Amino acid sequence: MHKADLYHSNQRLQRKLEKTFQLRRTRMAVNWDQEKYLDLLQHFGDPHKHLPPVIHVAGTNGKGSIIAMLRGICEAAGMRVHSYTSPHLICINERIVLAGKQISDDVLEALIDEALEYINDKPLSFFEVISTVAFKAFSQVPADIFLLEVGMGGRLDCTNVIDRPLVSIINRVSMDHTQFLGHTIEEIAAQKAGIIKQGVPCVVGYQGQGERARAVLNVVQQEAQQNDAPLFVAGRDFAVSQDAAKMRFSYAGGSSDYPLPALSGEYQVYNAAAVLAAIQQIKAQGVDISNDAVSTGLQTCRWPGRLQRIDKEWPGGAKEHEIWLDCGHNDSAGEALAVQIKRWNETDLRPTYLIIGMLDSKDSEGFLKPLHGSVSGINVVPISSDPNSQSVEQIQGVCGTGTKVISHNDFKKAVVYIIESAECSVRILIAGSVYLAGEVLQFINIGESR
Questions:
Q1: Higher pLDDT, 207 or 318
Q2: Are 408 and 380 in contact (CB under 8 A)?
Q3: In whole angstroms, what is the distance from residue 150 CA to residue 200 CA?
Q4: 347: how many CB neighbours lie within 10 A of its CB?
Q5: Which of 300, 324, 354 finishes a domain?
Q6: Sheet holding 308-309, edge to edge
Q7: Cα distances (angstroms) measured from residue 328 to each of 38, 305, 357
Q8: pLDDT tens for residues 365-398?
Q9: Range of the structural domain that residue 215 is part of
Q10: Which of 43, 169, 227, 370 shows a CA-CA span of 20 to 30 A to 416?
Q11: In a domain, 449, yes or no
Q12: What is the structure's pLDDT at 448?
């Protein structure tokens, strides 16, 4: 939770968000004060027990993209869809989507008022309060399915109060939030695996290659065995391949062709495979979703700030240059972006310049290591909404003296510098933080409804 999350164009609502933020800044290794949180839920009538069927999504990378694809597919099938995601890019309403529409300011404010009146001085975190408010809102609006994203981790996350979802999804697990979740991949995977419920099928998305992937799968498999939960693992129980026009999903001895997802990036095909595996599980439980709905949903889904091309919307225009925006900020994100740059270079060999703004709690070395040799220059910018951004000295320290690292006062000046210094058409990639992505989208005024 960061102060940037409190910004809102509605000044009255912003003041109440700030008051909620002041209740407690979570510094412990868990994000759930179970007793007081459950008391607050009870005050609201235990709304988490009165929800539509739930798909619960955990993982370090790709959770939001998976929910975006699931939402597109379910809506294309004629379903009313709730979704709860975090963090947001522009304002907190984005997190709570009620039957396809963001929660209104009036409804959100009224629920926060009720929570604050009950809480008084009880030491509850911002996320505990907002999750309770969200569950209450979701329980009041009819829907056919509820797409629920874990906030952080899983086992001790506020969303992990759903007794029996339709299906659980654990996507790519990486080193992130180590101060809360643990300092080894096994410890982090154990937190993610905590969403597995007794007898509930669990889809495990692509985990990469090598020892780390095996370590994650071992932890998840142990948790699934303890809960008698059927496990469907990428690369073992389902697979995906792609060409320029389509992807082929293989499952249970058969295969089907689908269009590539509307979301850019090769890694989105792996995310789509987890989505398609989850669709198979919910169809097996009687939910009617046609292949046409799947195809339409994949082609129409949207998820801003995730490898999003924005040069056409850049104020003043970017002429012949490309500008891309991504929220990536951990090692797996760095790997995915390095693969994407390689793909770009196969058809369009122009230099790629990175603009990076990253919180000091994030692993810039892990993010930048895969990108070594892929980018022609690194430009460091602050995140204006947070004073704890990594400095040019910190970034230079992890890059080494062989990489040119330049500091700028903000991302706008960095873009101007790169374009004015360019001797040819260039590609600019802005990445490193959800908060930086939000600032960019506000600047170009396309922070549209999600």
A1: 207
A2: yes
A3: 17
A4: 6
A5: 300
A6: 308-309, 322-325, 427-431, 352-356, 377-380, 405-407
A7: 33, 9, 10
A8: 999 999 998 999 999 999 988 888 999 999 998 8
A9: 3-300
A10: 370
A11: no
A12: 46
